[in-house]
Structure formats: C-alpha cells, structure tokens
Design a protein that fits this description.
The structure is a homodimer of 443-residue chains. By secondary structure, chain A is an alpha/beta fold. Chain A has three domains: 1-129, Rossmann fold (3-Layer(aba) Sandwich); 150-292, Succinyl-CoA synthetase domains (Rossmann fold); 294-439, Succinyl-CoA synthetase domains (Rossmann fold, 3-Layer(aba) Sandwich), CATH 3.40.50.261. Chain A has helices at residues 2-6, 23-34, 77-86, 105-121, 165-177, 196-205, 222-231, 245-252, 262-271, 280-290, 308-320, 330-339, 358-370, 391-395, 409-417, 428-439, and strands at residues 10-14, 38-42, 67-70, 91-94, 124-126, 132-135, 140-143, 155-162, 182-187, 211-216, 236-240, 275-277, 301-305, 350-351, 376-380, 402-405, 424-425. In chain A, strands 7-6-9-8-10-11-12 form a seven-stranded mixed sheet, with helices on both faces. Chain A has a five-stranded parallel sheet with strand order 2-1-3-4-5, with helices on both faces. A five-stranded parallel sheet of chain A has the order 14-13-15-16-17, with helices on both faces. The interface between A and B is large, with 79 and 78 residues.
C-alpha cells in the first residue's frame, strides 16, 4: 500500500489551478516537469493548464489513478474525496489545511467527515495539512514549492517523515543546498490515517532508504511506534518537538495533538538506539555524516590539524562528549615523526603545523588510517594557508569513519566546488559531535 | 603605549620580502595597500618592492618608526630586535614562530634572549608566534593573509584578542563574511610581554570598542585578568580553550603554557559578568547579536512565526535555557486577534500562519514591540512562502532587542542582499540562545 504512495504510475492533482502561485498550480507544475508517470489535472474550470487537458472531476479520467493529491479548499475536500472513492483511488494525499489544526469546531467536524469517507471507501490518507510527498527516484515532487523557492535534493539514501510542513520544506532545501541526497520525504500533518509509525515501518523495508529521519511533535500510537522501531535495523534520527511545556503549547496551536510525555519517549528512544537530535543543526549534521554510510567501532578519536586553536576546541569538545583521544603509541609517534618537522606535535591532536601542505596531510592520514589505535579521524584544515590547495580534498582517501572541519569564505568556496561527497563541518565542535553519532550506531 | 600599537604614524616591516607568498611580503602588501600612514620595508636585499624603496636595516630609516613588525626567521629576531632598540622603536609585533611553542631547548633559549633584549631597551612586545594585528579604522592590516584568502571585516564595534592565530584568522574572515564589523584584532601568541589582560584593559578604554571578545588558552596573570575584568564596563565574550584534559594537552603542544584550572576561571568569569561562549558557533552568534548593541531587561520572550514547526523548536529551546515565554494577556490577545485570521494562534509563539504577508508581520510586530509584556522578540520567518518578500526585512523596525530566524537557500540570498544590519540566525535554537545572552547583560 505505502509503495503506491511513493511509486504510483498515475497521479491526479485535484485542484490543479490555472492561477500561478496557487498550491494546486505549483504541485501540478512540479509533477508535470519531473514525474516519470501520468499526471491528470482536475479542475471544474477545464481550460488546459500548460497545454494539458484538464478534467472537471476525477470521475472523468479514463485510466486508473494510483494516487490523488487533493489541494482544494477544506470545505470541498469531502466531495472530491468521495469522488476518489467512487473512482477506486486507494491512496490520497490531502494537502489542504483548515481542519482540526485550526482548533475550530467546523474544522474538527470536517476532519471527522473525511475520516468517515476514507474509511467507507478503504482509502488510505496522508494528511490533511501537509506540504506533500517527494520521491527523488521517480521525480514524484508533489510539494507546493517551486525550485526557485525551495531547492530539491538529488537522489540519496535518506528518507524523511515530518509532522510539520515547515520542517519538511526546510529539510528538502537544506539537504539540497548541502548536497546531501534524499530518497523520500513525506509531510503527514494532522495524520488522520497514516502516521510516523507507518512511515518508519515502510522506510525500514524500502531498499532505497539507508537512513531514516523524522520530526515528530506528537506520537499517535506509542505501542506501534515502539514496535516498528524495535524491528527496524537502519539508523533512525529523530528530532522531537514539544519536549517542554513551552514547546507543547506551541504544538497544540499547530497540529492540535498532545505532545506526550517526552521523558518517557526519550528513554525508550535511547533503548531502541534511536539517535535523538537536540536541535535543527544537530539533525542536519547527523544526516550529513550518516549519509556517508560509515560506522565507528569505538570511541577512540584521532585528530589531525594544521590549526592549533581549532585542535584545542575539538579536543575539549571530544572530552565533553565522552569520546577518547588516545595519545599515539611510541611506535606510531616514531612513524609520524619521520614525516613531520621537529616542531610538529605527535600527541593527539596531531598538530602538523601551519606550513603543512597536501603531501604532509596525505602521508599523516595514511598512517593514521591504517593504525589500529583509532576508531575514527577528525581532519581539521585551515584552508587559508598558502601551502594548501583544494587538491587535498580531491586526493583525500580515508577508510575509517571521519569528518572534516574547515571554516571561512575560502572553505565554503572549496566545499561548493567539490564533486566528492565529504562530511564537511563548519565548526570543530559540530565535526566532533557528528563523529560521536557514528560511535554510537548499533551493529 | 598600547595606542601606539594600533595607531602608529609609521610602521616598519622587518623582513618585507620580495617573494610573493612569504609572510613579510604579504604584510607589507596589506599595509601598503590599506594603511593610512608611512610604511618602511626592511630587507638586506634592497631592490624595491612594489616600487618602494627598501631599507637594509631599520637603522637606515631616517624618520621615526612608531611600530615595527618583525617577520624574519626566528634565529635573526634577536639581531633585528636589537636594531629596533637602537632606533628607539618602542612597539614591536613579532610574527615569527620558532620559539617556546616548539618545545625545543633552542626555541626556549631564543625566546629568553628576545625577552632580555626587549627589557633592556624598554620595548613592548606582541608575540612572538602571531598572525599580527589589525585596526579597521586606519587600515592597519598587519596580518599575513591577503583578502583573496581571508576576508577582512569592515569597521565596527567589536575588538578581539586571541592567543591562537587560527582563531584570529577565522574570526576576521567569518565576521567579514557575516557582515559583522570589527574595530581591532590582535593575535598575541606566546605573549612574552603583552597578554590578554593588557588588551582587555586597553579595549575597555578604547572609544571605538563597544564589545570585547577573545580566545584564551592559558591565563598568564590571573590576578591582573580579574582586576581588568572587574574594572571593565563593556560586554566581554570569552571562548576558553584547554578547558579539559584533552584540550590542555592540545594547548601544550601549541603555545606551551599551562591551561589553568578551568572551573576556577569559569566561576570567576560568571561573577564578573563575562559571557562565556561554549563553542565556536556560540562565539560568532554572540558577537552577531551583541554588535547590534541592545540589551534585554528581562527574560520574557515573545515569538512570532509563520512556521509552526520552527516555533515549536524555538519554544522548547527557550524553556531549556530558562527564558520565559508568557502567554499574552487577554487584552493583548484581543488586539492581535483583530488583525489575524481566525485559525492563527495568539498564544506564544504567536503563529500568524503560513499565509502571512509582510503587512501581517509588520502589524503584529508593531503591537508586540509596544507591549510591556515582553522584553525581547524572536521573529521566525519561513521566507519560502509565496506571500512573503524581501521587503519584510527592509521595513522591519523593532525597538526591543530581537533576533530573526530564517533558513534555507532563499534566506541566504535575502540575507546577502540586505544593506541593513540584522541579527539573522540560521537555526531557531541559535536565535534563541543569542537572545538569552542579551537577557544576561549587566546594566
């Protein structure tokens, strides 16, 4: 069933609008431009849109419709959903808002009405009150944002579920901007039918998905959530909103559901090896490093740096996070000394000093990468020194789990120009924190 | 005395090199291009550099020299420093490295030798082992990085001292990139003479400086530091390196000085109202908001958002940091309701919903800015919605302390295109954390 949401052969956009800027217009345009399948625009006003024949109702479409995207005024949703039922459409995404999230009696009643209709026809629903769904594999961009406003990520191994539309939009954009690929994304809003547990269950089985990520405000079915998390074998990163009294008050204005007892969930998450992101930055940082697909077998971190001060900050933070920063053995120190100038430090951080060039980095990293004394490596690079060039990142070849820290205008330019997918962080502490996640992944 | 370091009439660059890429070449070029004063290149090889007459020794310069920048091999430093003494130069910045920071006997002895020379001539020293000093007011860019590698900030109200050269370079670049102005910056390396306390003391009196920031690894004179901090009336942001056993091991390889008992200092810092930045990101974020020059008189935060999910994250974080998020009074709620659609929330966060336009933001913010129920405001803007434009930031006019959170490619474009100086943050949590700093500033 869930597969039909992400891999439909044909999609109807109910409320495909003639007016630029309208939600139904943008979704239809995104699908028309990208989706590798049939797209039917539905609108009682039947003038063609982008030269495409418009159907007054989904009932007028001749072929099968695997997925309907509803983007009409809330009050019309019951009518068009009923028509979906009659057309035997089994999968519907309701983008429209104006339901229980408004807190109004009318909204709550309307939501109950569409629940009843869906039930009577056996329709599965994502939404209402969502920004849509996205699948990079087949161009299913059923979101109501154009590329000019929100960048869409390239094909990748992360699948993302989110209760909040904002988080969905911004995750797409930031991941695209940071060149982190995405397999699938779903925004599920009020979750009158399918919810976080269903998506985790599906992503756990989905071949394209290697990392599961999500933003949850309220848990709809705690027992099922625990059950699907227990069965899942893939890394799961969760950002939980509504963890505090302030946050839950904010959620109740937002998707009108209780935020749940956070501490209870947080403990369960820990037991189930869920990686909890504390902040928005954490979420993106963790996805950045997990998308590389490595895992550390221990907490022993080796730091290589040409920038003393950043080595110090990274070391302090490694201590704070409970990582180990072992000093190299005498044997290893000797090996390193052979290729380092006398004023370099072979302790950990291994400070290869400000005059380090590409060759010195490569040689030191080769030795450390082969060594059994470290489980993961942090490479700090002050790219602003005259002895270093972009070439370092082109030739960099590390087998251990690693992260890179480089900062500044020049670092950003280099990062943008790289074809290679590298876990680059713009602060020493964030580079360390990401590595900690790799050291805590379950087997 | 310190004023002559930052406001010399004439500067000699000892070791001004003919070779591009050499430290002495770059410093001379930076000064020649930017410094509003006389610059004398000194080099035994007397072919002109950039058409400028080169003096074989500082003793050959006819006029007075207020400041000498030494960028020669460590072994030659005693000789040229002696010449500075004979020339009656009282202020010297020693860029050269190769002293006690190497840990070598030779380096330690050389350092003692230059200390003795300086003492016998009454020369005050910054360094050795520094990236130099910088004053945006008179173009004194005596750092060895060209603009193509490291951006230099525009004139501003922050003055920065740093033991670590890396931190100095990257602070200049990041602050420039983020359009945050800098008054003065000094990297003081091994601090054989002037140290953090001297710079704090000077910046506390310097008219251009409104905010003092610094990176310290080791404290040279604890009593003096406490004394100057106690007398200072300006906000001080400190990032301390070597807080942990890992970090102090890293510093000892770096500037060869004990990191000190961090907890002792941390407690003293708190008592003296020093704002401690825990991470590199914190440091930049705090400077971003402090540079605006506002101060909150309490902890009552009002959040306005068109993006529910980010409102939730900001609220949770405000709770975590001990800020208050009061619900508006009934009277205030009524005022807000008049200009908001029925499905908006007048609780706090005030969720003005995804269809908010510039006008709605402006009206709501005007009401909140006038209200006595909040001490500061957080404005979260999902700029990706079709109803919003860049105009919002042009017309934004808030009198209370505030921060803005906007995220994504479009947010970055808008931020870059704004002439106005706004405290914009790319994560809801960081926007909240910065406001907390404003709520803790001493009167």
């Amino acid at each position: 069933m869930m597969k039909s949401f992400f891999y439909p052969k044909s999609v109807a956009v109910i409320g495909a609008s003639h007016e630029e800027g309208k939600i139904g217009h943008v979704i239809f345009r995104n699908l028309l431009e990208k989706f590798r399948g049939k797209v039917y625009p539905i609108n009682p006003k039947t003038e063609p849109i982008f030269g495409q024949k418009v159907y007054p109702s989904i009932l007028d479409v001749k072929g099968d419709v695997d997925l309907a995207i509803i983007a009409v005024n809330a009050s019309i949703v019951p009518k068009v959903l009923e028509e979906c039922g009659k057309k035997n459409v089994k999968n519907v995404v309701i983008i429209s808002s104006g339901f229980s999230e408004t807190g109004s009696q009318k909204g709550i009643e309307l939501e109950q009405e569409i629940k009843n209709i869906a039930k009577s026809y056996g329709i599965r629903i994502i939404g209402p009150n969502t920004i849509g769904i996205f699948n990079s594999e087949n161009g299913l961009d059923a979101t109501f944002f154009l590329e000019k406003d929100v960048k869409k990520p390239k094909d990748g191994n992360i699948s993302f579920f989110t209760q909040s539309g904002t988080i969905g939009i911004l995750a797409l954009d930031i991941l695209a901007k940071e060149n982190i690929g995405v397999a699938k994304l779903v925004s599920y809003g009020n979750a009158i039918d399918l919810n976080e547990s269903d998506f985790i269950e599906y992503f756990a089985k989905d071949e394209k998905t290697k990392i599961i990520a999500g933003f949850i405000e309220s848990v709809r079915n705690g027992r099922k959530l625990i059950d699907v998390l227990r069965k899942n074998k893939k890394p799961v990163v969760l950002l939980k909103g509504g963890k505090t009294v302030f946050g839950s008050r904010a959620t109740s204005s937002h998707t009108s559901s209780l935020a749940g007892d956070y501490k209870v969930y947080s403990n369960i998450f820990k037991q189930l090896n869920v990686i909890e992101a504390e902040t928005w930055d954490d979420l993106i940082d963790y996805l950045r490093i997990l998308s590389i697909g490595r895992k550390a077998n221990g907490k022993r971190l080796g730091i290589v740096t040409n920038a003393g001060g950043f080595g110090v900050l990274a070391s302090d933070y490694a201590f704070k996070l409970g990582l180990e920063l072992p000093e190299p053995s005498e044997k290893l120190k000797k090996k390193l000394s052979k290729i380092l100038p006398s004023y370099a430090s072979t302790k950990n951080p291994i400070d290869i000093t400000a005059d380090a060039d590409v060759d010195r980095y490569v040689k030191v990293l080769r030795i450390l990468d082969k060594s059994k004394e470290f489980d993961m490596l942090l490479v700090i690079v002050l790219v602003q020194t005259p002895t270093l060039t972009k070439e370092l990142f082109e030739v960099l070849n590390i087998n251990k789990p690693f992260s890179i820290c480089m900062v500044g205008t020049k670092a950003e330019e280099i990062k943008k120009s790289l074809d290679k997918k590298l876990p680059i962080f713009e602060s020493p502490e964030r580079a360390v924190k990401a590595l900690k996640v790799l050291s805590e992944l379950k087997a």
